[in-house]
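Onboarding guide, step 5: your first structure request.
Type a short instruction followed by the sequence, for example:

Predict the 3D structure of this protein.
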Amino acid sequence: MEYTKEQISELINKHSEREHGLQDLLEIMLESMMSAERGEYLSGDRTGDKGNGYRLGHTYGQGRTLEFRIPRDRYGNFHPQILAILKGQEEECEKLAGALYAKGLTQSQVGDVFDEIYGEHYSKASISRMLEYLRKDVGEWLCRSLDEYYPVLFIDCVFIKVHRRRSCASEAFYVMVGVKDDKTREVLGIYDRPTESATGWCEMLNEIRKRGVGNIGLIVADGLGGLDEAVSASFPGTPLQRCTTHLKRNMMNRVRLGDKAELAEDLRQVFRTGDESYTVEKAWDRWQALCGKWGKDYRSIRNMSGDPLYKSYFTYLNYHPRIQSMIYTTNWIERLQKDFRRVTRMRGAIPNEESVLLLMGKTAMDKEAYYRQLPGIDCDKTLFPD
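The system replies with structure tokens like these:
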């Protein structure tokens, strides 16, 4: 039975008025166009080739996922041209959804943005399917192979609120930022553990070893106890520089408000940078003098004087004066943590650790500042041998 053009148009109009009618028509149209394209393909010089059923496919349209059958040929050489166009549009939608989600929008808010752009509301389920592209991309990036050598590695934890077992609490996410041979930076890894510990850092350092890291010139970390042993166990012979900024904050919290300015100046004199004549031995003598001076009035400072752990705060003085201010603190990684907190704070408590890793991973991947070279950091030939 043949229909006139007017009859076909009337049937289409009637069906489009039904619930999901327009989506049905789009699926039928796509299938028909691809079937016609396969017929045209097989009509050429395709000896022995013929139609071989269909495979399922999908794309996004009119606020929901469109599902249709993609025609196949016997030899698997037929690829509908319209499918390539749809695939490109689908990837653009997925990239847009992932970018909006990574900037701090919830899935519902991403759906609202798509509503304004495309004129149709996309459900949370549709947006979740679009985010599979982002999950796959970030998942592969977090497990990628790493360089064999990193001159400097900065490590620190950021604490994010996560829902678990019907309660909400801050959990530790271990972050590693490495300086590469080409003077750029990259985030080597982001790992989740409920708490921060030296044992946890030992696990993380062993993890990057499995991913290809064989040698590290210097590790910069906070003042967590037991890190010396963790570093020695994972990368024997690698020096440890503890963050002087963390120590200064800790010291300032030990004195009265009226004493803070004087103590801050004393600390500046102890942790000097850029002076070639200022050695580890001189710095340690100044540290002992500081503890003696302030220890007369503050017992907690007096007890810090003889602890050999504090010697690792002066490791930076063994390197070129020009780079000492770059390696005696974890400030670089703390700036990254501000970005992490910004995208996670917009959501309050995150439903699970996978969602946190997704947001943090995407933020780290998009950190454009890390692609710029650090001027002068390669002047130290201990870390950057020719």
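Each response can be followed by summary notes, for example: Residues 138 and 320 are 36 Å apart (CA to CA).
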